[in-house]
Design a protein that fits this description.
membrane; single chain; Cytochrome c7-like domain-containing protein; Cyt_c7-like; mainly alpha; about 210 residues; 10 helices; transmembrane helix; transmembrane
Length: about 210
């Protein structure tokens, strides 16, 4: 009986199968790379704001404490945004005629709040409480990065669930003394110090679904 398939048919079949597997893996790797890229997560992307507020100047240069503007960060889930009166407490005397602050003066005069663009924002189905993280010794820079070096604010991390879980799985790598939570530049605690802080603050970072989704 004559041979139906060419002698190279087996080799071609194996090559096709392996090729399909490699293509599938390559496609998955490409999708993962895109989903975690700055383009997709908007990390390190500066967003337009009504006023060019420089954290580098106010935090790094002038040394303002985070709580001066974000007054509820250690008390409530939402860190809070400063009322125009907070801005004008300084800028009624400093740079009071600057064109860059025209919208601030207008807001103060009319009583209409400035509409800031949220930079670090989790989806609506995620609950994040600033106060509990501050109370447990998680510093601002852990999530927001070195804002004292940011001329214009941008998101530092992807905010993907994996990024959150990386911290919750190893909280001892991120905890610091409560007195240092609002400081930017700090040396990492030693493993012994971290262990003591975890025990002192009773730090139990939950990883079950209902901790963040409810």
């Amino acid at each position: 009986m004559a041979q139906v398939f060419h002698p190279l048919a087996n080799a071609l079949a194996r090559t096709t199968i392996f090729g399909a597997v490699f293509i599938a893996l390559g496609l998955l790797a490409t999708i993962y790379a895109f989903s975690t890229s700055d383009y997709a997560t908007q990390a390190h992307v500066v967003r337009a704001q009504p006023v060019e507020f420089s954290h580098q100047h106010h935090v790094g240069g002038l040394g303002l404490d985070c709580r001066y503007c974000h007054s509820t960060v250690d008390k409530q889930a939402f860190a809070g945004m400063p009322a125009t009166e907070v801005c004008m407490s300084c800028h009624s005397q400093i740079w009071s005629d600057s064109p860059k602050l025209a919208k601030v003066r207008e807001s103060f005069k009319t009583g209409k709040p400035l509409e800031w663009t949220r930079v670090t924002d989790v989806p609506d189905y995620v609950h994040f409480d600033h106060s509990i993280h501050v109370t447990k010794g998680i510093g601002c820079a852990e999530c927001h990065g070195r804002v004292d070096r940011m001329q214009m604010m941008s998101r530092e991390h992807s905010l993907h669930m994996k990024w959150c879980l990386d911290c919750h799985w190893t909280p001892e790598k991120h905890v610091r003394p409560r007195s240092d939570v609002f400081k930017m530049a700090l040396a990492s605690p030693t493993p012994e110090e971290s262990k003591e802080l975890v025990e002192k603050y009773r730090l139990k970072a939950p990883t079950h679904c209902s901790a963040c989704h409810y």
